[in-house]
Specification:
Elements (H helix, E strand, L loop, with lengths): L1 E5 L3 H13 L3 E5 L2 H6 L8 E4 L8 H10 L6 E5 L4 H10 L3 E4 L4 H16 L5 E4 L2 E4 L4 E4 L2 E3 L3 H12 L5 E2 H9 L9 H13 L8 E4 L3 E4 L3
């Protein structure tokens, strides 16, 4: 995923860019609104983090121009302008989310992931990655033509991994997808179910379909 930051404060921009890159995404920084319009930043990005108080051309004008041109790229406004009228103005201009400074980097990353999930999860009923074929309509998994029985939890976990093939799926994403936002079970429950899932789909394989990304989560191999 390619994320752009439109922010004139170099300290904030550097911190956000570092966090986004460490989360496994590409990231570019644009320092003013004029450059954002000139470089078609909103059009060329998957998600944009946009300050409002920018030099040369303000963030709201950048956002309005992009929306008027038909650009639908998700935009998270990140600004010190935190009153309700400011927020309403931002949403009316076309913002998808609004975060007020000072802010927590982890919260911004969580909002980026939430928007990414909303915009990339497709209502397809069939998922296929290599020899893995998952039918959402029949709730069946087949591997190279062989049907494998999965528990509902294993099925849901594999579904999310297949939807984000090659990308890191965090434990938080798995918990939200399988159990919902109020899940508060033991911390090792993900590992237990993941090990059982691996035992079923990795039989007679030298390498696991599912890679553990230490400190972050899991990723399904692309082939």
């Amino acid at each position: 995923m390619h994320i752009s930051i439109v922010e004139d404060d170099p300290v904030i921009a550097k911190a956000v860019r570092t966090a986004i890159c460490e989360a496994g995404h590409d990231c570019t920084w644009v320092a003013d609104g004029e450059a954002a319009i000139r470089d078609n930043t909103l059009l060329s990005s998957d998600i944009v983090v946009l300050d409002l108080m920018l030099p040369k051309i303000g963030g709201l004008d950048v956002l309005r121009a992009a929306r008027a041109a038909g650009v639908r790229t998700p935009v998270i406004v990140l600004t010190a302008m935190g009153t309700v009228p400011h927020k309403l103005e931002g949403f009316e201009a076309g913002a998808d989310d609004y975060l007020v400074k000072p802010f927590a980097i982890d919260e911004l990353l969580a909002r980026i992931e939430a928007i990414h999930r909303r915009t990339t999860l497709k209502p397809t009923m069939e998922l296929e990655v290599g020899d893995l074929h998952l039918s959402l309509s029949t709730k069946r998994l087949s591997l190279a033509g062989r049907v494998i029985d999965l528990t509902p939890t294993e099925f849901s976990m594999l579904e999310l991994l297949m939807r984000f093939t090659g990308q890191v799926v965090t434990r938080k994403m798995l918990c939200e997808h399988v159990w919902g936002f109020d899940w508060d079970g033991p911390t090792n429950v993900i590992e237990v179910h993941m090990n059982r899932l691996r035992g079923k789909i990795d039989r007679n394989r030298n390498d696991s379909f599912i890679r553990t990304i230490r400190g972050r989560g899991y990723a399904l191999a692309t082939g």
